Amino acid sequence: MASAAPARTRSPFPRRRLLATGALGLAAAATLGAVAPASAAVLDDGDLAAQESAQWTEEFLTRPETREGFVLEAMDDWQVANATFIIAVVKGHELGEEVAVVALITAIVEAWLYNYEPAVDADSGGLFQQRPSMGWGTYDEVRHKKHALDAFLGLGEHSQAPGLLQVVPDVASWEPGAAAQAVQASAHPERYTELVGAAREIWDRFADDVEPYTA
C-alpha cells in the first residue's frame, strides 16, 4: 500500500474534529486544511454541525487509480476517510451495520476504497465504479462520493439504476456478499464475500466515533 495511516498522538487538531472525520490520520487532516482553509479553524461547540459538514469534501479524497490492493492493517488516510464517510452517510440515512458492511465491501472490491477520478473500466468511476452509461448518473455524479453512495443505496434521485434497498429490501437477511452482487452484477461475485470480515472490522473500529452525515 502507499502508506500506513500515521499515528494520531499529539494531534494539533481537537479530538472532536478528528472524530467528526472518522479519526483521519494527520496527513489527511493537513490536506483538508489546504483544500478548505475555513474548515481548519477551531469552532465553538455551537458550530459543530457546520464544522462536521465542512469536513466531508470531494476534492481532497480523490486520487488517480492504482491497483495496489487492500490491506486492512495498512489502510492509508484516503481509505480511512472514505470508509468513515460511508459509515457516516449510512448512519445519516438511519441505516445500520449490515447496510454499511455491504457498501464497504463493494467500495473495497470496486475501488480499494479510493474515489477514482479516471475511468477504470469502460466509463466507470468513483468509489463504486458506477457507469453513467448504465444509468448511475453523470460523469461528475458517479465521482461525487455522496451522490455515488446514495445511488448505490438506492436513495439517489439522480440515478436510474436500482440500488441496494430496491434490489434487496430485506438486506439484513442476506449474506453481505450476495447483497453486493445483487446490485453490482460483477463477473467475480466471490470477491465481495472475501471482504466481509474486513468490512465488519472497519465498522467496529470507527462506527461509534463517526457522526451521522445527512447533508
UniProtKB/TrEMBL annotation:
Residues 1-40 form the signal peptide. Keywords: Signal. InterPro entries: TAT_signal. The keyword Signal applies. This is Peptidoglycan-binding protein. It comes from Brachybacterium vulturis. The lineage of its organism: Bacteria, Bacillati, Actinomycetota, Actinomycetes, Micrococcales.
